[in-house]
Amino acid sequence: MSSPLDPALSRRLKRTPDGLVCAVAQQRGTGEVLMVAWMDDEALHRTLTTRRATYYSRSRQQLWVKGETSGHTQYVHEVRLDCDGDTLLLTVDQVGAACHTGDRTCFDATVLLSEADRDSD
């Protein structure tokens, strides 16, 4: 199947066996990490052309535009590819919660290590 994604960019991507690339969404201005999701070539192409964060749902096996049903949208300001070609970094303006649980970020719930732990040593 042919993809509308730029072939030069497509060649640089290192995908999982199921054709996906990890995508990290980060809040513009603060650097807050909001969420991690997955993109296939079509999701990346749509994100680059519409500036609306579009991901691939592994559970539903389909594309989804962030906020399409919840209203918690991500306007994409920048997309970067890491040095290995296996992770994308999206700088976004997040409206509402980024996490499907309703939390601001997907990293609010469980802290495994913090500066407070260091201070107690």
Write up this protein.
This protein has 121 residues and is α+β, with helices and mostly antiparallel strands. The protein is 17% helix and 31% strand. It has three helices and six strands. The chain has helices spanning 7-12, 41-50, 115-119, and strands at residues 21-27, 33-39, 54-57, 62-65, 74-81, 87-94. The chain has a four-stranded mixed β-sheet, with helices on one face. A two-stranded antiparallel ribbon has the order 3-4. A hairpin with a 4-residue loop joins strand 3 (54-57) and strand 4. The N and C termini lie far apart (56 Å).
Task: Please tag this protein with its features.
121 residues, alpha+beta, four-stranded mixed sheet, two-stranded antiparallel sheet, 17% helix
Care to give the gist of this entry?
Helix content is 17%, strand content 31%.
Protein structure class: alpha+beta
Mean pLDDT: 93
Count of DSSP strands = 6
Largest sheet: 4 strands, mixed
- The helix/strand series, from N terminus to C terminus, equals HEEHEEEEH
Q: Give the CA-CA distance, first to last residue.
A: 56 Å
Categorize the overall geometry: globular
Kindly provide the radius of gyration, computed on alpha-carbon positions and rounded to a whole number of angstroms. Answer: 16 Å
Low-pLDDT stretches are: none
Provide the spatial order of strands within the biggest beta sheet.
2-1-6-5
**Beta fraction of the residues?**
25-35%
Number of helices: 3
**Fraction of residues in H or I helices:** 10-25%
SSE diagram, text form:
Elements: H1 7-12, E1 21-27, E2 33-39, H2 41-50, E3 54-57, E4 62-65, E5 74-81, E6 87-94, H3 115-119
Parallel strand pairs: 1-6
Antiparallel strand pairs: 1-2, 3-4, 5-6
